Structures are given as C-alpha cells and as structure tokens.
Amino acid sequence: MPATTSTTRPGGRSARVRAAVHRAVVEFLAENPAEALTLPLIATRAGVHPTTLYRRWGSVADLMADVASSRFSGDIVVPDTGSLREDLQRWASDVATDLADPDVLAIMRAAIGSGPDGGCACTADRHAQLTAILDRERSRGGTAPETAHAADVLLGPLYYRAIFAGQPADPGWTTELVDTLLK
C-alpha cells in the first residue's frame, strides 16, 4: 500500500472565502453604519452562503475581531534607528497616519462596538510592536518604560483622538507624546 502524505493547500477555497468576506466587510463599512452589519448581508456581498459565516465566525463580533486582527497585524514596520526616542517618534507617527485612514476608523469603530474582544483586536499588534521597540532598547543597555505605561501615554491619546475626537494627529503632537513618555 503506497504511503500518502497530507499536504495543506496554500490558499485554497478557505483563503478565498476569508478574503472575500473581509473585503465585503470593509466595503460595507465604507458605505453603511456599523450597526447595520449582519452576517447574512456580508455573506451576500461576499458571494457565499450565510451558513459559511455562521460556521466560521459565529457572530458579527467574532467576524469583526478577525477582520480587525487581520487589518492591524504587521501593517506598521517597527523602526530601528538606534535611538529609542527616534524609534518611538517614527512609530507613533506611522500609527497616527494609519489611524487617519477612514477605512481603518470604520473597521476600528465596528470592531470596538461589536464586543469586548474588538478593542483587543485593534490594539494587540500595536502592543507587540511597542514591546519590541522597548525590549530592543533594554537589550542595547538603555532604560525603557514598561509597555503598559507606554501604551497609555502613546496609544491612548492617538486612539482617542482618532476614534472619538476625529482630529488628525500631526507630527508635532506625536513628538510631544513621545517627549511626555520619556521625561
């Protein structure tokens, strides 16, 4: 009897469905309020059966967490200038630029409004990036604040300004945030 090997299909139908559903969510949120989002509407827009969404995600909250996690993972490069201050300034400026994108804001607002895990999906990668910057400074022998404190001082105001105040964060302001953190 010949031996069979199991191989995972790269991409395949599952990846196509996920991409179509994510794209449908982003497009829907660009045209409609988040409160109007339902799994059947997204399924129709993505060209799949609603049971596919219920089976894979189970709820709008789970779908939004997946869309947010996907969108906010790896989209910002962690700078390495050799200076903690410079790294944080570049990173905070990149985050501010990302948060100024209307599509990003729509995804964030929908994810946050979908349930308690939505906010985590929008910030988990940012915390990992911040931790990498701070850990690298420590490995160089420097002193760096704890991630939680840095997130409070940097991400808190950036996200508040983007989500609730609707004000863009100019580079001078993000520099002030970093200066406040490193006092």
Cα-atom radius of gyration:
19 Å
What string gives the helices and strands in order? HHHHHHHHH
Number of domains: 2
Going by CATH, what is the homologous superfamily of the largest domain?
Tetracycline Repressor, domain 2
CATH architecture level-2 label of the largest domain? Orthogonal Bundle
DNA-binding region: 38-57
GO molecular function: DNA-binding transcription factor activity; transcription cis-regulatory region binding
Domain HTH tetR-type: 15-75
Pfam families: TetR_C_11 (PF16859), TetR_N (PF00440)
In brief:
With 183 residues, the chain is mainly α. The chain is 71% helix and 0% strand.
Give a quick set of tags describing it.
183 residues; Arc Repressor Mutant, subunit A; 9 helices; elongated; DNA-binding; TetR family transcriptional regulator; Tet_transcr_reg_TetR-rel_C_sf; transcription; transcription cis-regulatory region binding
What does this molecule look like?
- The protein is mainly α.
- It has 2 domains: 10-58, Homeodomain-like (Arc Repressor Mutant, subunit A, Orthogonal Bundle); 72-182, Tetracycline Repressor, domain 2 (Orthogonal Bundle).
- Helices cover 71% and strands 0% of the residues.
- It has helices spanning 12-31, 39-46, 50-56, 60-71, 84-99, 102-114, 116-139, 147-165, 171-181.
